[in-house]
Design brief:
- This protein has a single domain, classed as Metal-dependent hydrolases (TIM Barrel), CATH 3.20.20.
- The chain has eleven helices and nine strands.
- Helix 6 packs parallel to helix 8.
- The protein is globular, with a radius of gyration of 18 Å.
- The two termini are 23 Å apart.
- One zinc ion (ZN) binds next to loops.
């Protein structure tokens, strides 16, 4: 596996989480490579939202997977002397039948894998999976339609699914591990400070440590919503864990590949990280 610790300690610029034309990113892979070279990056990894077993506008389709690999190889040929490129996926954990641990993903020749939860089952129909990661307006509507406005159960479902994903393995980096906190916190202010919520986060964190995963500090919402994933109030907890932390921008636009990195670094430094 890629030596993330060495890369982080080198102090060189990297980003291992980004989205392009193959999923819901807003530009072609090549544009990200050119931008990364212009901004002086040494390492750049592509992590499209993986195929999932139902239609989704945000995820790559299975038939595009070979096209994605071919485009990656072409970019390595054309730009590989200027930047180290990596091919990866942000793999969605849906359930025991579909997640980073299944053979399909294990067989793909990926340099590394990010495991993330974006979908949880509807309370009315367990076979229907709902994306809980979008903008708050659509989240609020989904809370009404699919989850009887029961935010505690949605949060529990998110973390239980995350722990299940971690226990099954098949990935290297846990993506934005408290992502639900953003929409849940808008739905019910202060929810992230409630004891039961903190307990769920701690259980998830314990599972991460037990499985030696790399934690990313995701800066996608830092400029707009002044928060990282995981949230700054969890940084003290991260300090207990002696694993490499990656700062990833989760960029969907080339101009955002480095967004939030400086601020996140400063925030982490305050906690001795
Ligand atoms: Zn994600
Ligand atoms: Zn992402």
């Amino acid at each position: 596996m890629l030596n993330f610790k060495e890369i982080v300690e080198s102090g060189k610029l990297y980003n291992f989480h980004s989205h392009t034309q193959f999923c819901d990113g807003r530009a072609e892979m090549e544009k990200f490579v050119v931008e990364a070279i212009n901004e002086g990056f040494s390492y750049y990894g592509f992590s499209p939202h993986s195929p999932i077993p139902f239609p989704s506008p945000c995820n790559m389709s299975e038939k595009d997977v070979p096209v994605f690999f071919a485009e990656y190889r072409r970019l390595v040929r054309d730009y590989g002397d200027k930047i180290q490129l990596y091919v990866a996926m942000e793999i969605d954990y849906i359930n025991r039948e579909w997640g980073p641990a299944i053979d399909y993903f294990r067989r793909l020749p990926l340099d590394y894998r990010i495991g993330s939860v974006h979908f949880i089952p509807s309370f009315n129909d367990k076979d229907q999976y709902v994306d809980i990661d979008g903008h708050f307006d659509s989240f609020k509507e989904k809370m009404r339609v699919f989850f009887d406005n029961d935010i505690e159960s949605v949060v529990k479902s998110f973390y239980h699914q995350s722990i299940e994903m971690i226990e099954q393995g098949g990935f290297d980096i846990i993506g934005h591990f408290d992502k639900i906190g953003h929409n849940a916190g808008h739905f019910r202010e202060g929810i992230e400070l409630e004891d039961w919520y903190i307990k769920l986060v701690e259980d998830t964190f314990a599972a991460i440590m037990d499985n030696n995963l790399i934690i990313e500090v995701n800066t996608k919402a830092l400029d707009k919503h002044q928060r990282t994933f995981p949230n700054e109030r969890l940084f003290k907890m991260l300090k207990r864990y002696d694993a490499p932390l990656l700062i990833n921008s989760d960029a969907h636009y080339p101009e955002l590949i480095n967004a939030g990195r400086g601020q996140a670094k400063k925030m982490l430094a305050t906690y001795g990280l």
